[in-house]
Amino acid sequence: MTVVEHLEYIKEQTIRMNAYRFAQNIISWDSAAGGAPKSGIDKKSQYAGILAGESFKIMTEEKFMNSVKEAFNSLDAIDSIEDRAMVREWNRTIERMSKIPEKEYTEFVELVSKTEVIWEEAKQKSDFNMFVPYYESIFSYLKKFAEYYGYKEHPYDALIEDFEPGMTVKELDKFFGELRAEIVPLLKDIKAKQLIDNENIDFINREVSKEKQKNLGEFLLNTIRYDKEKGMVAESEHPFTNGVSFNDVRITTNYDLNNFTASFYSLAHEGGHGIYEQNQSEELEDKGLRDGASAGIHESQSRMYENMFCRSNEFWSFMYPKLNEYTNDAFLDIPLNTFLKGINHVDTSFIRVEADELTYPLHIMIRYEIEKAIMEGALDSKDLSKVWNEKMKEYLGIEPKNDAEGVLQDVHWAAGLFGYFPSYALGNAFAAQFVYYMKKDFDVSADLEKGDFSRINQWLKNKIHQFGKVYLPMELIEKATGEKFNPSYYIKYLKEKYSSI
Ligand code: ZN
Known about the structure:
Shape: globular
Distance between the termini: 64 Å
Number of helices: 20
Largest sheet: 3 strands, mixed
Radius of gyration: 23 Å
Strand content: under 5%
Bound molecules: zinc ion
Order of helices and strands: HHHHHHHHHEEEHHHHHHHHHHH
Strand order of the largest sheet: 1-3-2
Structural class: mainly alpha
């Protein structure tokens, strides 16, 4: 077969796998947001498993793997940059997969499906000791996998690669080191200032009916230009985005009658994810390049809309009258300045997913330091709870009362996900770098004051969105901003923002 024929074959098979993925996406949408009855869950799981298996069969067919290998060996001879990316991505997936002995991989999948259930019980009982042996076995598999994958400098690098290709411990140490040095003291200052101010921000909890929140949310999505013709909005317990296929990118939210910001900001967040996928080029889907360059790049888009745009003073000078219009003047007696303090209030809390914009990266830093120490063999599972609490005390100044609100709070480790957490913090830092350069190209603040997102979205489409997975995340950042990833923009952004509130 010629290279052209190999490429054709890879594309044909990618489309077949996409079809299975489409069906899986619809199934997961149906159960999380489509109101599927719980009684159907057993069959649903069985059928979803079969679909995943069919897709896996296509990927591991000898002919397919051979075509990927042949095409990869002649990568330089392929003209189209998308075709090269398609081959690069498949080659990476297949190579990583083939490095883990099948028996160990199956054992690990079985272990993890068991531990997720046990973790739920341990969390409910806040019983850390009950989960220690499971941590131990999960971590010992992950350490073995890192050796199988291989790495240049640090075993943790081998796992980070799954979520943030090209990112390493060396870079992350620098990133979190700067955060630690700048944010920990800044947080102390802000807490002290808030204490003196003693501003009453209870108005955030004023009741706003679901109907009103829905209309407000629709106005927000129209403003940021999430395209409802190519997606839909539904309700789910935890908000998420499901890019079912090209031109069908769905998002969800949930409503809290006594906190309208829950739906408002989850829509801004998921809307950001959604706009990213809606702006990707059509031809990427058939080449398996839709989605996003990495977990961190995807998160950079959602965080940008949620925090950097929709929590900014400029945006609220446009949005505040609209908020009152949509809520029957529920906040008319609150000066805009006080309102801004309310939506940007900093509060040290135990739970990562409830953390504000400033303390969030510190929650991630704790997880990063622990994961790294485990991979180095410098930390024993039995000491996890103790170390967790010490770090909470050191960085956030608070100590969890129990392990349910401490080390047991996230499902990630129980699910065998190691190396994922850094992407959550990196997303914010990528976003700050993008926005810094966007502001060099045009007056972003002026557009936000008008509630006009057309230039913002166009800039993001040109520089980031259209490319999907074509470029590796670190390449994309450099291409979009003319500079390698530089965490100082994020530190600068946080310092400026919180010293002005
Ligand atoms: Zn997100």
